[in-house]
Amino acid sequence: MSTVVQPQTRVKAQGTAAKVRVGLWDLVRAELTRSRRTFTWGVIGATLIFTVHTIILANASISSGVVTELQWNGNALAWMHMYAGGFAVPLGLLTGAMAQWREQRWRQGGTAWRAVAPRRVAGARLVVLSLSALACQVALVAPVVGHALIVGNGWGPWDRYLLFATYMWIVVTGACAWGMAAFHVLRVVSVGVAPVLGFVWSVAGVVQAERSNWWMLPWAWTARVPLPLLGVHGSSVLLEADSPVWGYPLLPGFLLTIGLTLVGVGLAVLCGASGGAGSSASSVSRLSRLLPGGRDAADDQSETVSEQAPVEVTTSLPRGIPIRRATTTTRMARIPGPRSAVLAMAGVLPWIVWAVLTVLLLAFLGVLHTVYPPGYGQSFLELMGVPVAAALVGITVWGRLQPAWRALITRRGAGAILTSAAVLSGFFLIPVLGASWGMTVLGDTLTRTDPTLPAVTGPVYGFMVMPAVAFMIAAVSLAVALSTRIVVAIVLNIILVIMGLLIGGNEVLAATWLWRLAPWGWMSIAHQFPERWLTIVVLSLLIGSVAMGTAALGARRAAIRD
């Protein structure tokens, strides 16, 4: 009788399930619940911080007499150009990648096996990300308008900044979609790589936005429309009254950007069909083999034989069960005596990832040195190369230590572990940055014969402060990632790199007290103002030491944090 009833019950259940269809609104509500207290909405706070910094910097530049030409609300719209030129695209890519990484870490909350098409889930996630992008534009524009009303500057050119906010909503939504698609290709690596590529995309766009063939350059599409709306050139300099930029048509840029956004949305939805738990696990396994120690971690998922099992037991097992091979780590575990924290950290740091990034940095600097004068490569290295390289080292160090942090601090003090990791990172980072600096100064004059001037030129002073600045950036990035989240460290570095470009890349602003607000640009400031090099070294070492101490004090809290 059971053999007859059981199939009937199964058919009835299947028929009932077939009648149930989850609507898009229900999927959006579910995605809203899943995204609570995540970076999807935390990005609004990052945008708000950028806006507040913009207002402060605009007022400071006017009050200090650095900027004399005054437009609406202290030229706030012109200062907002840095959002479009270096902040929006990287942050959008990071938000999309983080949303996908969240689902991978949480195994999609057990919903991957529900009777809902993955593409519909991806579509609902894009709707939520679009809502987050819209909220970011409100956080960008509303404080500026509110400040203008408070100080009595009125509503100002409301049509221009409303169009700008609408356009940036489209841009950020598209960046989120491209971030989701990038995660399906690069997995967790996209969390670090996507913002860097987005920043390069943005910088290339603002450099080439005013070219006549801009329509042939996709990175210029997102950078051209904001120019007449904000009243600036690609370099963020205010437009002249008779500048042809005022007459740039907006419709072509809007249409091209919408097309780029739709392509990203299509890729994100199509990739959602292959975003199940099984594919995620296999992709992570393949990716982990590229990293030091990753092969062992990947093999742990499939191996069932203990490393302490006798050989004769493993040989009697079936052929389908893999056998753990002896690695450097397992061999060291059998050696009695004290352990070296430096040697332990040497085996886990992401040397291969760093080597790949080093090759990319040197190749890019080589191209710059070939095509442009030495000053271009020096500016890039001082304002972007050193900050980004040092930040990536600090963040990736914590990325490798975080999974085993609870066990590590029970075997050795947090201070010894972090110090060992910092020393090894310095042994790698300083020679790489030194080689990069040497490539940028080839063919340039480094000494002077004029007795009224310093004996060496500005690049030498930049080189003198480079180790201290790199240590500060790496230490702060590591401490922030350890004390909060890796994504917070990434966002903080994006903001500080932009501050370095704004102040350190502007000789007029760097000459004022504002240079203290741009620590990520201190190498460039030492280049421009050699008399500050000793102050920069002392401040950098002090900030870096405080950051390392903060990281050591927060080690236990990081171990118990979910």
Explain this structure to me?
The chain is mainly alpha-helical. It folds into three domains: 25-286, no CATH class; 300-339, no CATH class; 348-560. It has 26 helices and no strands. The longest helix is centred in the first third of the chain and has 34 residues, at 118-151. The two termini are 51 Å apart. Mean pLDDT is 82; it is low at 1-18, 275-318, 320-324 and 326-333.
Which helices and strands occur, and which strands form pairs?
Elements: H1 2-19, H2 24-34, H3 39-63, H4 76-79, H5 81-105, H6 118-151, H7 158-186, H8 190-208, H9 218-224, H10 226-230, H11 251-272, H12 277-288, H13 294-299, H14 311-315, H15 328-333, H16 341-346, H17 351-371, H18 374-401, H19 405-411, H20 414-440, H21 458-483, H22 486-504, H23 507-510, H24 522-528, H25 533-553, H26 555-560
Helix pairs in contact: 2-6, 3-5, 3-6, 5-7, 5-8, 5-22, 6-7, 6-11, 7-8, 7-11, 8-9, 9-11, 17-18, 17-20, 18-20, 18-21, 18-22, 20-21, 20-25, 21-22, 21-24, 21-25
Give helix and strand order, one letter per element, not per position.
HHHHHHHHHHHHHHHHHHHHHHHHHH
What's the Cα radius of gyration? 27 Å
- Summarize the amount of helix as a percent range: over 70%
Major beta-sheet overview: none
In whole angstroms, how far apart are the ends?
51 Å
Put simply, the count of helices is 26
- The parts where pLDDT drops under 50 for at least 5 residues are 1-18, 275-318, 320-324, 326-333
Strand percentage, roughly? under 5%
What is the overall shape?
globular
| Count of structural domains | 3
User: Average pLDDT across residues?
Assistant: 82
Class of secondary structure makeup: mainly alpha
Count of DSSP strands: 0
